[in-house]
Amino acid sequence: MILFTLKVYDITRGASVHDFPVSTGIAGVSMRLEPGGMRELHWHANAAEWAYVVSGSCRTTIIHPDGSSYVDIFNPGDVWYFPRGYGHSIQGLGPGECHFILIFDNEDFSEDHTFSVTDFIARTPAEVVMQNLGLTADELALLPDKEAYFVKEPVPSIGSHYAYPRISSDLLTKHRYPLMAKQPRLAPGGGTQRTVTVEDFPISSTMGRSVIELEPGGLREMHWHPNADEWQYYLDGNAEMTVFLAEGNAVTEQFETGDVDYVPMGAGHYIKNTGSEICRILIGFNSGHYEAIDLSE
């Protein structure tokens, strides 16, 4: 276990195995979008993407290989899952900044394996793009001549059909799960744990997630996961964790808001709130099935 700080002051900041060598199964990114700010349509060739919305609201669009598309709006506590290779975009809706944490089921996730649609078009011969999209030379000249990555667009309003409500306002859609609406498990000393797995959220086949909230002095008891590594992002507060690594080896660390930690599969550990406020931790597992063995059992 090695502490890695992912405090975010820029639009995006991430930690892969290259930055955080102990994280051998999972990588993460913290991203912020202003109202109207958009992460352009892109896809990841080597990882699926799971996200948790910390604050604000955003809208995603995802394209499936069968030609279908899905548009969803996310608010704090909601999660999404996009399979590897599926094209998707993310736009901040306002009124304030949208902050979300992205978790990938590949420790080697990087921009080298992320493909943006503007970059694809800009690197393709002009006559092919015009034929493919039915554009004139003048229209093609209006497109970006390199990767845009982030763009600023108007926030959708009543003039956009995406602003209208769904005919059926389902709580759960194919790519959206309202994690914080789930009935929680109670933690010793005051606290809750909410977990989403493939059983709850069928498309999330490679990753499971938890949000733990601990009252001051509260404890996520001593336990281990027999089927997955654990990646932690500290959303709020202060905590202590000891990770038992077998053969007499254990490491104890202190954490605060914005820190990241990693626990290898099978390593025993606990999390204790050492602060005076509620401690919230986002936890990712590189398995769609949640398995934990608690010491009290």
Describe what you observe in this structure:
This protein has helices spanning 117-122, 126-133, 137-141; strands at 4-5, 12-15, 27-33, 37-44, 49-55, 58-63, 69-74, 78-82, 87-92, 98-104, 114-116, 150-152, 176-178, 185-186, 191-196, 208-214, 219-224, 230-236, 239-244, 250-255, 259-263, 268-273, 279-285, 293-294. With 297 residues, it is mainly beta. The relative contact order is 0.18. The chain has three helices and 24 strands. The chain is elongated, with a radius of gyration of 20 Å.
Q: Tell me, what's the shape? A: elongated
Structural class, from helix and strand content? mainly beta
H/E topology pattern: EEEEEEEEEEEHHHEEEEEEEEEEEEE
Number of helices: 3
Strand order of the largest sheet: 1-21-18-23-16-15-14
Q: Which features does this protein show?
A:
disordered N terminus; 24 strands; seven-stranded antiparallel β-sheet; mainly beta; 297 residues; elongated; 3 helices; six-stranded antiparallel β-sheet
Detail the topology: elements first, then pairings.
Blueprint (H helix, E strand, L loop, with lengths): L3 E2 L6 E4 L11 E7 L3 E8 L4 E7 L2 E6 L5 E6 L3 E5 L4 E6 L5 E7 L9 E3 H6 L3 H8 L3 H5 L8 E3 L23 E3 L6 E2 L4 E6 L11 E7 L4 E6 L5 E7 L2 E6 L5 E6 L3 E5 L4 E6 L5 E7 L7 E2 L3
Antiparallel strand pairs: 1-21, 2-3, 3-10, 4-9, 4-11, 4-12, 5-8, 5-10, 6-7, 6-9, 8-13, 14-15, 15-16, 16-23, 17-22, 17-24, 18-21, 18-23, 19-20, 19-22
Summary, kept brief:
By secondary structure, the chain is mostly beta strands. Helix content is 6%, strand content 43%. It has a seven-stranded antiparallel beta sheet with strand order 1-21-18-23-16-15-14, with no helix packed on it. Strands 2-3-10-5-8-13 form a six-stranded antiparallel beta sheet, with no helix packed on it.
